[in-house]
Amino acid sequence: MSGHIPVLLAEVVDALAPAPGRHIIDGTFGGGGYAAAFLEAGATITAFDRDLRSLAAGAALVASAGGRLRLVHRSFADMADELGPATADGVALDLGYSSIQLDDPAYGLSFQADGPLDMRLSGEGPTAADFLNLASEAEIADVLFRYGEEPAARRIARAVVAARPLATTGEFAAVVRRVVKAPPGSRRDPATRSFQAVRIRVNDELAELERGLVAAEAVLKPGGALAVVSFHSLEDRIVKRFLAERGGAAPAGSRHLPQVAARRAPSFERLARPRRPGERELAANPRARSATLRVARRSAAPGWGHAERGRPAGCGRAAVRRGGLA
Known about the structure:
With 326 residues, the chain is α/β, with parallel strands linked by helices.
């Protein structure tokens, strides 16, 4: 499992306190960095991943774990179905991609090296090429703006349709770079937002995250900790809102805005302020620069389950059609 550096590893281990007799869920096995650290501390691990290639690479870690590591080929959103309620002492969710996945052109996740325009972690369903070659210009613009927060979404979508068919990551990146130019001195590639958006769309990442947080609530024992490492504002916003709502921080209503439903007992207690990588970690792993860790502890109150959640303001095709987009 070489080649991957787990982000905020010490902080995640400290939050979950793995130890002999404790069951920790690694919801995103990836390069196996978290799982290896939990095993070293003596815990028993159940690790989930949609990527069969990552699970296959973890065979040696399983063999050395003495029966304390089980790999499951499912999304972390399915952890409650797999394990049942109140079965875990800790849950770790690293929402980023492993360096192994990003550096292998076969995944089609990066524009650093040319590869097939795939982006699917599970290897199932439509590829990124399928989406970009078959979707309407309006749908592509919607995805680029909604999931990539790309101001030039309309112009990029128009250029993609004109350049079809696209088959490789290099071709897609070249289309975006013809439309969007990097500001002088910027270290961000103009294609970054567009690649993020299409990857999220192909893997249904944000909906999976919302389901996964509910699943974590279900599997955690009272006192168990949830540690989530996110890498962009869309993910972090979902995690922050989930923990605020279920930690009792949602508005309670007033005489001007009556409370519609009775307030539920908080299912989580927030433990600390969000953590970001320090200078030493960033020097060793520049890919950690956008990471944010949020930690909360499960209370003894019943879980909320799949509560009704409103759609975030500013999302969707209507937002693309409003003014302000190039």
